[in-house]
Amino acid sequence: MKGRVLIVAGSDSGGGAGIQADIKTVTALGGYAATAITALTIQDTRDVYGIHEVPVDIVRRQMEVVLDDIGADCIKTGMLHRTEVLEAVADVIARKAAGVPLVVDPVMVAKGGARLLDADTTGVLRDRLIGAATVLTPNLPEAEILSGARIETDDDLERVGRALCALGPKAVLMKGGHRPGDEVRDVLATADGVEVFRSPRIDTPHTHGTGCTLASAIAAGIAQGLGPHAAIARGRDYVQKAIRTAPGFGSGHGPLNHGHTIRD
């Protein structure tokens, strides 16, 4: 076991996304996952039916005790749906984890379309966390919200990636899965330029939790000493196989096979 990842995110009762997907992913890739849960969601493969908020002090203390005792080689943030929670998370990172690599998955919209981030919190996310990120991993709707720009073409994908990179993160992975076509085209923007990752689109409804899974796979790689590019490449390979071998559970957007790395 190598690489300690502290995951700060919400819980998914269906087990396909959120903290549950994060723990499975980090473990499947040989890392150690610790958590600070920000919210409990009532969720299945079809929808999000409710959110129970964890008190801010509890979120803060979860992070503090883990960092004081176990430590972290990378921190990954997911669902930070309230300004107070986001501010508390940013404060703890600044006080106790300065210099620890940070992967920010700006979770704003669930697969079924439910909004998971308060509109007023978007500016705080940009100001407090995105600039400190080692890797930012927005999907297209999230990138449009963060940038205020429409993304309709390949050029738009690259242009917005560069614009988000200018906010301060070392790398921005623009996930292109929401765009139509037989090929999924993800764009990595860094200070050195733009690189495109391509893979065949897998025709399946079983894609619940792909964003959480990819971000946690990247965080595990970085915690294990990989650079952003290598961590992203390995993470994309892991997610693609997890989608191809999905178990087919649920009647909506089903979960991935996070355990495909496990051998009898």
Number of domains: 1
Oligomeric form: single chain
Q: Please outline the major beta sheet.
A: 9 strands, mixed
CATH topology: UDP-N-acetylmuramoyl-L-alanine:D-glutamate ligase
The overall strand count is: 9
The average pLDDT score comes to 93
Count of DSSP helices?
8
User: Any idea of the CATH class?
Assistant: Alpha Beta
Descriptive account of the structure:
By secondary structure, this protein is an alpha/beta fold. The protein has helices at residues 18-28, 56-69, 83-96, 122-128, 140-147, 154-165, 210-223, 228-244; strands spanning 4-12, 32-43, 48-53, 74-77, 102-104, 135-136, 171-174, 183-190, 193-200. The protein starts with a strand and ends in a 20-residue tail after the last helix. It has 8 helices and 9 strands. The radius of gyration is 17 Å and the shape is globular. A 9-stranded mixed β-sheet has the order 3-2-1-4-5-6-7-8-9, with helices on both faces. The model has no long low-confidence stretch (mean pLDDT 93). It has one domain (4-244): 3-Layer(aba) Sandwich (UDP-N-acetylmuramoyl-L-alanine:D-glutamate ligase), CATH 3.40.1190.
